[in-house]
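Database export, one record per block. Field names are fixed; values are copied verbatim from the stored entry.
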Amino acid sequence: MQKVVNIIAIASGVVSIAVVGSGLYVYLQRDKLVDSVKSQVLKSVTGSLPGVVDTKMPKMTGPALAPPSAGGAPGFGIPR
């Protein structure tokens, strides 16, 4: 019975050391891991952007709004 308890205790210690070690590794390498994920996301997003921009952007925009004048010309004026 003592051998079983010793094996369980050793296994518990190994698992605890593994959890603490992996947490420490992630904590110490967090900047590198975040930069790696950011670069992967940017690569995947920028790869799909040219196709989206070419198909979704209008070929021409509308005319510019005329500045408001004393006669009430079209445009966005300051509300009274």
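Remark 1: Residues 2-54 form one domain.
Remark 2: Helices lie at 2-28, 30-56.
End of record.
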